[in-house]
Amino acid sequence: LLFQKELNALKQYESSVSRVDNRLFELEGSTSSQTTNEKTSLVRMRERLSKRDHLILFIRRAPFLKRYYTRLDRTITGHVVDILKELGVPNPENVVHRYPHELSGGMQQRIVIAMALACHPTLLIADEPTSNLDVTVQAQILNLLKSLQKQFDLTYLFVTHHLLVVQYISNRIAVIYLGKIVELSMTETLFKKPLHPYSRASFSAIPDAISEFLYRFNCILDIPAALPVN
């Protein structure tokens, strides 16, 4: 009975799609050869879609499969809620059902971090994770990343143009210029004595009020080719 109902529904579906197909070809006014080729393609596509829809309808309506997928959905949702709790997201049971535009920038960033941690990685690549965030939220995200690093024994590959963020989060820094690593150094060493002209120019761009403890260099407008230090 289940398959008979599905089969009848599919026949009605195919009949309605065929009427729509014919009407579309009449409106387009295509040549006979074009119409034949296009209609053949549509028929094949309709067959594939019908088979897929038939399977989906069967899965949704079969009682034992409905119970299985309901339990699976609850399990996944519970796992997501647990991750959000670990990241300090308030009211995660509610947040898990929200759309991105309903969340603040800082909350969106926490959600992205949660997605990255869901598969339990050992290496996490963070590309400008603090961009477009105000200073207060940046500090919260950086502190969260440091806390998660200790908790999950993570290694970060942190990509950013913000030198003070790099100083706070990184142990070792690779300076990239024109697509090549031109200087590789421990964070403390690089901030005390940058060697490559691009590194020096980057440090000279930090505002004076923040970088009194740094060496000051005149900004270099014409930096030579991307050759590594030494």
UniProtKB/TrEMBL annotation:
SUPFAM superfamilies, per the entry:
P-loop containing nucleoside triphosphate hydrolases
- UniProt-listed InterPro entries: ABC_Ni/Peptide_Import (IPR050388), ABC_transporter-like_ATP-bd (IPR003439), ABC_transporter-like_CS (IPR017871), P-loop_NTPase (IPR027417)
User: Where does the record place the ABC transporter domain?
Assistant: 2-203
Q: Where in the cell is it found?
A: Membrane
Annotated GO MF terms: ATP binding; ATP hydrolysis activity
The record's Gene3D superfamilies line, in alphabetical order, gives:
P-loop containing nucleotide triphosphate hydrolases
Pfam families the record matches? ABC_tran (PF00005)
Keywords, ordered alphabetically = Cell inner membrane, Cell membrane, Membrane, Translocase, Transport
Output a single Gene Ontology CC term carried by this record: membrane
The name under which this protein is listed is ABC transporter domain-containing protein
The scientific name of the source species is: marine sediment metagenome
